[in-house]
Design a protein that fits this description.
By secondary structure, this protein is of the alpha/beta class. It has 2 domains: 84 residues, Ribosomal Protein S8, Chain: A, domain 1 (2-Layer Sandwich), CATH 3.30.1370.10; 212 residues, 3-Layer(aba) Sandwich (Rossmann fold), CATH 3.40.50.300. The protein is 39% helix and 16% strand.
Length: 343
């Protein structure tokens, strides 16, 4: 018996396959005027060009002083902007390493980088000049941070390790000390192992607390020649001390940085913030997810202060995320893994 064919109404509706989005391809040629910069631009054995190729999915061919870029339209546009900015950095005498290139690639995908990745910046370039190097933003949030450092009186810089919170703050402090806009640079952090454990360490008080302050020394020596650091430390222009040493002082004409602030108690944070004096600037750096207060009791002074003061006139709050990590790219992936939903 022949089967009656199903009517149109009886047939199950099967939607037509959705057309695949066509990827538009493009190609562009770049020419650079200063031939002497091409070696540093391309990198040894073209490693810099290979890095841009791999990260953006484009093909780059070097022909003398000309670069030919092919690939998806959006990727070609990003590669063009990144290579132009790489060349601009070299023309300004700035370093160009893999970290700087990774940062330029990351920023090329940010829609809010007015004045950084635009072909024609709308304002002066954002940078911090020190005796040893010029620091430029390596992420969109670092650009916002640098603006806040010259605008706000007290800045909370929150986020994971590797985002440049302390390093950029130290660079800005050094720049202001060199220019004479402040008379002192004061770097502090809580010694979370203070008390009985600290007493077992050999040496005088300075030798006991120096291990806790080493990251601040490292940033300082990276921004100033060692002999200048030593001379300014001896004269008191630069002071590095645990937060307990701040009690009872008024810090005027000073750039003051508190690092690892998540390990302060509420009482310590209140004491520190109320040291603020005339013609001063304070930067409070910390990672709210890495609280190591002994005993684990009570709220972190950093979280408490941000909750009370965020939005108050004169205060700036900068929140970095794993996407802003400017160390090796794997550090950002580690931070994401530890701070993800399953952690």
């Amino acid at each position: 018996m022949a089967r009656k064919p199903a009517s149109k109404a009886d047939r199950a509706f099967t939607p037509p396959p959705s057309p695949q989005r066509e990827v538009r391809r493009a190609q562009v040629d770049l020419n650079f005027d200063n031939q002497s910069l091409l070696g540093a631009l391309f990198g040894q054995f073209d490693t810099n060009l290979v890095l841009v190729e791999n990260r953006l999915g484009v093909f780059i061919a070097a022909r003398g002083g000309e670069l030919h870029i092919e690939g998806p339209e959006d990727s070609v546009a990003r590669a063009r902007d990144v290579l132009n900015k790489m060349y601009d950095r070299l023309a300004l005498g700035q370093d160009l390493d893999a970290g700087a290139i990774e940062s330029l690639i990351a920023m090329s995908d940010e829609p809010t980088l007015d004045g950084i990745m635009d072909a024609e910046p709308k304002g002066p370039p954002i940078m911090i000049r020190t005796r040893r190097k010029t620091i430029v933003p390596r992420s969109a949030m670092q650009a916002t941070y640098m603006r806040s450092l010259v605008r706000d009186d007290i800045i909370f810089a929150l986020g994971p390790a590797g985002t440049g919170k302390t390093y950029v703050a130290v660079a800005q402090a050094v720049a202001q000390l060199i220019s004479g806009s402040v008379q002192r640079l004061i770097l502090s952090r809580p010694a979370v192992e203070a008390g009985e454990k600290l007493g077992f360490l050999p040496g005088d008080l300075k030798e006991k607390v120096d291990p806790y302050l080493r990251p601040l020394y490292d940033a300082l020596y990276d921004c100033m020649p060692p002999e200048q650091v030593e001379r300014r430390l001896a004269s008191g222009e630069i002071e590095i001390a645990p937060i307990a040493f701040m009690r009872g002082r008024t810090l005027a004409d000073a750039f003051v940085i508190l690092d690892e602030a998540q390990n302060t108690t509420r009482e310590q944070m209140k004491m520190f913030l109320t040291r603020f004096g005339q013609n001063s600037r304070m930067v409070v750096c910390g990672d709210p997810n890495q609280v190591d207060i002994p005993g684990g009791g009570g709220m972190s002074g950093l979280a408490d202060a941000v909750g009370k003061l965020e939005g108050v006139d004169g205060f700036g709050t900068i929140r970095f995320s794993a996407a802003d990590v400017v160390r090796h790219p794997i550090v950002g992936r580690i931070v994401e893994a530890y701070e993800g939903p399953s952690s």
